[in-house]
Specification:
The complex is a heterodimer. In chain A, a hairpin with a 2-residue loop joins β2 and β3 (37-44). A 3-stranded antiparallel beta sheet of chain A has the order 1-2-3. Chain A has a 3-stranded antiparallel beta sheet with strand order 6-7-8. Helix content of chain A is 48%, strand content 13%. Chain A has helices spanning 52-57, 61-69, 76-91, 97-125, 130-150, 172-194, 198-204, 212-218, 223-226, 234-237, 258-282, 334-339, 342-346, 351-361, 365-369, and strands spanning 12-16, 28-34, 37-44, 159-160, 163-164, 301-309, 312-320, 326-332. Chain A has one domain: Cytochrome-c3 Hydrogenase, chain B (Orthogonal Bundle). Chain A is an alpha+beta fold. Chain B is of the alpha+beta class. Chain B has one domain: Alpha-Beta Plaits (2-Layer Sandwich), CATH 3.30.70. In chain B, α7 runs antiparallel to α8 (185-201). Chain B starts with a helix and ends with a helix. In chain B, 27% of the residues are buried. Classes of the chains: A alpha+beta, B alpha+beta. The A-B interface holds A 59-60, 62-63, 66-67, 130, 137, 144, 147-152, 155, 157, 165-166, 169, 189, 192-194, 196-199 and B 1, 3-4, 6-7, 10-11, 20, 31-36, 61, 63, 99-103, 106, 115. Bound molecules: iron/sulfur cluster (2 copies). One iron/sulfur cluster binds at residues 52-58, 69, 108, 110, 112-113 of chain B.
């Protein structure tokens, strides 16, 4: 029996962010802590709000593509693809096959680049400094290819409603073959370095667990959902472009913890690389732009189309009133919806794990706030 | 423990290898051929004037509205050295606003603008990012010298080509007119057909 004075314990509020290095942008979490345990978490967003959806209403269809580059600034080509597919649906045009292959190759490369960035920064969040160098080295190779094809490293403005801006350079196929070899080696190296490291396992195994039904009811998608064992992938479940012609697996996790979410992305890198290889072998000749008018002026109507972003299910809801500008563009951002899973994952864990959990969701604040 | 050693092995393998990073700003990595730097205006050597006619299409299509252009009558056209009746007088791009999207290049019908390879234009002045016609032409000329640049539609836009074509058409017309009294209706028809296509070229 202790004889010292007895104190009441009071929950403490702890502000994390908006300038916290582990939030990958400007994001604030207000943690309510009881000792080292988190009992509640309130996310505050909106620091990076740029009014993309409103801006899209005053710009023509061609100009909106530049906005989509900037919604999720880590997987630009995937975002462009989501918008141009919505545009194609409302205009009722189909991109020629060659254009679709080019778009899928680039989108999958962008997925690998985005996952590499995640792996590197996640390692940094958890205290491992080396993997980020390896990941950025490989990402740099991919960005170089993008520069060679689209002319820009990140803000490409390359895809068009009905195709792509310009055909790929002549040395595209050998270049990508070489690139895939290099990147695969790099991913393997990082995998070896990080995935089974005891410290890393200790920080991520059994941390931030979310079970399948809860993940579904929170509206998670992408690797964050698949980590909980639910094999939902838009590429498989609502196939678009040329994905049905490709042979690939959708990796799923078991426990729904941080390590599962992390390792899924590593596996997805391998899958994407093999998909790109198949695309290259099937790449047909032909036009890269559907015949049609140069100025997009779709008929009045509304469409919804979605595609698999590196972060999850990116939806675009497009309403046209028949003019050359969209009447409304609603974006369903996977990062924003994945953030809803933060609360059930974090409650009950340690403060130090909050960083690991937030990192494992791989949010991009540009997309959360739009 | 074992995994830690395994990781150490991976990193050891890179020890003593060549640096992958470049020592910026002492060292500049080359850019790819399609790289899109700041837009520059191109120079038509054959008439010694810019390609740009100041038609304002790019100004209207620019998503950030960062350009302005004013045209005036082209003195070279009066002298018959060029086919452009109007030519750019002032052109300004606010490079602070430019997002390097390349839309202006896409929409220009006169092959007058291109994304140059210049991407380092920092200056100490607050107005330093307002690129005027002189700077834009410099960017364009540097770009033309750097890469093998060819106009997309030379037959419409390069002064010497258009003027030669026009002179040939003119000569054909004169010849046809001279021969007209004896000529049959077919030649007349042919020369009449040529005229509209020549108009479109101007
Ligand atoms: S650059 Fe081209 S589109 Fe722009 S004003 Fe000049 S001629 Fe017109
Ligand atoms: S590159 Fe884009 S933003 Fe820049 S001047 Fe051209 S159209 Fe405008």
């Amino acid at each position: 029996m202790s004889t010292g004075p007895q104190f009441d314990s009071v929950d403490m509020m702890l502000n994390m962010g908006p300038q916290h290095p582990a939030t990958h942008g400007v994001f604030r979490m207000v943690l309510t802590v009881d000792g080292e345990r988190v009992v509640d978490v309130t996310p505050h967003i909106g620091y990076l709000h740029r009014g993309t959806e409103r801006l899209a209403e005053v710009e023509s269809y061609g100009q909106v593509i530049t906005l989509f580059d900037r919604v999720d600034y880590i997987s630009n080509l995937n975002n462009e693809l989501a918008f141009v597919r919505a545009g194609e649906k409302i205009m009722e045009v189909d991109a020629p096959e060659r254009a679709q292959y080019i778009r899928v190759i680039l989108a999958e490369l962008n997925r690998v680049a985005s996952h590499l960035l995640f792996i590197g920064t996640y390692a940094i969040d958890l205290g491992a400094m080396t993997p980020v160098m390896y990941c950025f080295r490989e990402r740099e190779r991919i960005e170089n290819l993008f520069e060679h094809v689209t002319g820009a490293r990140m803000m490409h403005n390359y895809m068009r409603i009905g195709g792509v801006k310009s055909d790929v350079p002549d040395d595209f196929v050998p270049w990508v073959h070489r690139l895939i070899g290099d990147v695969r080696k790099g991913v393997e190296e990082t995998d070896k370095l990080l995935s089974t490291n005891e410290v890393f396992l200790g920080r991520t195994r059994g941390v931030g667990i979310i079970d399948g039904p809860m993940a579904v009811s929170c509206g998670l998608s992408g690797p964050s959902l698949r980590g909980s064992g639910i094999a939902y992938d838009v590429r498989k479940d609502d196939p678009y472009e040329i994905y049905p012609y490709l042979n690939y697996k959708v990796p799923v996790g078991e426990n729904g913890d941080c390590w599962d979410r992390y390792y899924l992305r590593v596996l997805e890198c391998y899958e994407s690389l093999s998909m790109i290889e198949q695309c290259l072998n099937q790449l047909p000749d032909g036009p890269i732009m559907a015949a049609g008018r140069r100025i997009a002026r779709p008929p009045a109507g509304e469409v919804f189309s979605h595609s698999e972003n590196p972060r999850g299910d990116l939806g675009v809801y497009l309403i046209s009133d028949g003019s050359d500008k969209p009447y409304r563009v609603k974006i369903r951002p996977p990062s924003f919806c994945n953030l809803i899973g933060l609360r059930p994952m974090t409650i009950g864990s340690y403060i130090a794990d909050a960083v690991a959990i937030l990192g494992s969701l791989d949010i991009v604040l540009g997309e959360v706030d739009r | 423990m074992i995994s830690g050693l395994k990781g150490m092995l991976v990193t050891l393998r890179w020890l003593g290898k060549r640096n992958i990073t470049a020592n910026y700003p002492k060292e500049h990595l080359p850019v790819q051929e399609r790289f899109m730097g700041f837009p520059g205006l191109l120079w038509d050597e054959t008439a010694d004037e810019p390609f740009c006619t100041g038609c304002m299409v790019c100004v209207r299509e620019c998503p950030t509205q960062c350009m302005t252009a004013i045209m005036h009558d082209n003195p070279n056209a009066v002298e018959g050295k060029s086919h452009r009746r109007k030519i750019i007088e002032t052109f300004e791009i606010n490079l602070n606003r430019c997002i390097l999207c390349g839309i202006c290049v896409d929409v220009c019908n006169f092959d007058a603008i291109a994304m140059s390879h210049e991407h380092e234009l920092a200056s100490f002045a607050r107005t330093g990012a307002r690129a005027d016609l002189g700077l834009l032409l410099d960017l364009g000329r540097k770009f033309q010298a750097e890469v093998v640049w060819a106009p997309k539609s030379a037959d419409r836009n390069v002064a010497s080509v258009v003027l030669t074509k026009r002179a040939a058409a003119e000569a054909a017309k004169v010849a046809a007119a001279d021969a007209a009294p004896q000529a049959d209706a077919a030649t007349l028809e042919a020369s009449a057909k040529e005229e509209p296509s020549e108009e479109r070229g101007s």
